[in-house]
């Protein structure tokens, strides 16, 4: 199955990109059935990746992620700064909400919507998550469309180069 969802993007006067609502921070990748891509603790968890679209580091302290309109499942801790054009993966673990863990899971059956709110509780991005096979990420392309990918890149750009960087960052330590 191939899924495309369109989101409008525009340029700031500086020439940098934002989504249609003007937010420089967007959801950029989702993996809802992870059997291959471990986090730093070696756990295979679902994740949501968030991206900074600008050349300026962006403080996302207090930004929130959720899989429901009526509750917040994760709040970015104080001092969370996304580097210029940077990415951060939030791992989903229903038993834990600390640091990089959201206290909710994602269904691979296509029944979830993921929401991103800014620090004043304004929704700045959302995506309906389609049915996804094991290890098949939902990836936002540069033009704002969403596609089912073949390689996940948690915390890195959604390109073959980003996958190579993820591999290098996750090589076993000897």
Write the layout of secondary structure elements.
Blueprint: E1 9-11, E2 17-19, E3 25-31, E4 46-52, E5 58-59, E6 64-66, E7 74-75, E8 81-82, E9 87-92, E10 101-102, E11 109-117, E12 123-131, E13 138-140, E14 146-148, H1 160-169
Structure in words:
The chain is mostly beta strands and 174 residues long. Helices cover 6% and strands 35% of the residues. It contains one helix and 14 strands, in the order E-E-E-E-E-E-E-E-E-E-E-E-E-E-H. The strands form four sheets. A six-stranded mixed sheet has the order 10-9-4-3-13-14, with no helix packed on it. The chain has a four-stranded antiparallel sheet with strand order 7-6-11-12, with no helix packed on it. Strands 1-2 form a two-stranded antiparallel sheet.
């Amino acid at each position: 199955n191939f899924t495309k969802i369109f989101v409008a993007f525009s340029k700031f006067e500086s020439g940098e990109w934002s989504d249609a609502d003007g937010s420089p921070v967007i959801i950029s990748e989702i993996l809802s059935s992870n059997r291959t891509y471990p986090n730093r603790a070696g756990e295979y968890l679902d994740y949501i990746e968030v991206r900074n679209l600008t050349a300026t580091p962006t403080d996302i302290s207090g930004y929130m992620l959720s899989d429901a309109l009526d509750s917040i499942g994760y709040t970015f801790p104080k001092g969370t700064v996304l580097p210029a054009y940077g990415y951060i993966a939030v791992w989903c673990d229903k038993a834990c909400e600390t640091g990089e863990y959201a206290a909710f899971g994602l269904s691979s059956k296509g029944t979830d919507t993921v929401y991103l709110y800014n620090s004043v509780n304004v929704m700045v991005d959302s995506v309906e998550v389609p049915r996804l096979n094991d290890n098949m990420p939902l990836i936002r392309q540069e033009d704002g469309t969403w596609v089912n990918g073949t390689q996940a890149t948690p915390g890195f750009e959604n390109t073959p180069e980003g996958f190579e960087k993820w591999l290098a960052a996750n090589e076993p330590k000897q």
